Amino acid sequence: MFQAAATGTLETAAVGQATLPGGDSPVRLFAADLDNNGAVDLVFSGRSVSGILLTDAQNNLQLRRR
Fold first, then answer.
1. Which one of 19, 39, 46, 52 is CB 3.0 to 4.6 Å from 27, fit for a cystine?
2. The sheet that has 27-32: what strands, in order across it?
């Protein structure tokens, strides 16, 4: 979440936290509506792990595994 401060800067706030499989770091995070349901889904990619988190009908992120 971003919020404009009176000083002309952006302030950020955490909206969630997760431990990714394998504990890989650093990780790249991409946000997009992958399943065309109108909700933002997440794709993460690290050195040894990657995956997709799809947002369900209750707005919870669900890890999709093969």
1. 46
2. 27-32, 41-46, 50-55, 61-64
* Separation between Cα atoms, residue 36 and residue 49, nearest integer Å: 24
Tell me: the pLDDT tens digits for 13-50?
A: 666 666 666 665 677 889 999 999 999 999 988 888 88
3-state secondary structure of 59: coil
* Residue 42 to residue 50: CA distance in whole angstroms: 11
Closest CA to 47 of 19, 16, 10, 22: 22
**10-12 and 61-64: which strand pairing?**
unpaired
- As a whole number of angstroms, the distance between CA 34 and CA 53 comes to 10
- Report whether the peptide linkage leading into residue 21 is cis, meaning its omega lies within 30 degrees of zero: no
